[in-house]
Write a structure and sequence with these properties.
mainly alpha; 2 domains; 0% strand; flat
């Protein structure tokens, strides 16, 4: 991958990783790998759990890079269209038909453009779908955690975040291109695919603080 001129990782992503690892050394290794990925350098990860976590998070970074590239292509296309439009108008004004005035040409072009813009706006409003309300990440996470707890599912927050980011970048559509009209029912049907692997669940359990067993002196 070529070197990029930016690095993007949100504070929320860092907090999720921090909560997952509960080990500063593993967190530092993960963050260094993220920076190297954006810089186009070879990724070298020694710790197995960090490598698995990074491979999952790489999907989020790829979404970011694709969105950035699409934005650049769109800006370039708009710029080229502006140049073509400008050249067309200048040519029309410099070489008006015989017997007409430049001032009249300006009025005709202006009126035609206004009528065209008005017609396009009316057509766009008539076919535009209703605006979809996208929940915040906090609301999405809280609801998913509540539903997964009731269903006794151990959800991987990284997979959940990737799913949320993917839907947002696709204008709140599923991976199959269908609009998400009721996101709560959609995520409920998706939770079973976002569970931790047995390895992650065991690693998570091993990182939890262990309670010291009570002795006779504690009674």
């Amino acid at each position: 991958m070529s070197k990029k001129d930016f690095v993007k990782i949100t504070f929320q992503d860092i907090e999720i990783a921090e909560e997952f690892f509960e080990n500063q050394k593993h967190l530092d290794e993960f963050l260094c790998a993220v920076v190297d990925y954006y810089r186009g350098k070879t990724i070298r990860i020694k710790t197995k759990i960090v490598k698995k976590y990074f491979e999952t998070y790489k999907k989020t970074m790829d979404f970011v890079l694709q969105a950035k590239e699409k934005g650049r292509e769109g800006a370039k296309l708009r710029y080229e269209n502006e140049i073509v439009t400008s050249d067309t108008l200048v040519g029309s004004l410099l070489a008006p038909p015989e017997g007409t005035l430049v001032a009249n040409n300006k009025d005709i072009i202006s009126n035609n453009k206004l009528e065209k813009d008005k017609k396009e706006k009316e057509e766009k409003e008539s076919v535009s779908p209703p605006k979809i309300s996208i929940p915040s990440w906090e609301e999405f996470l809280a609801y998913s955690q509540k539903e997964s707890y009731e269903r006794n599912l151990k959800i991987d927050k990284v997979k959940l975040k990737i799913k949320y980011d993917g839907w947002v970048m696709d204008d709140w559509h599923t991976g199959k291109g269908r609009p998400i009209k009721n996101w709560k029912s959609t995520i409920i049907n998706t939770l079973c695919y976002l569970q931790m692997t047995p390895y992650q669940a065991q690693a998570r359990q091993d990182n939890l603080p262990r309670k010291k067993p009570k002795t006779l002196d504690d009674l």
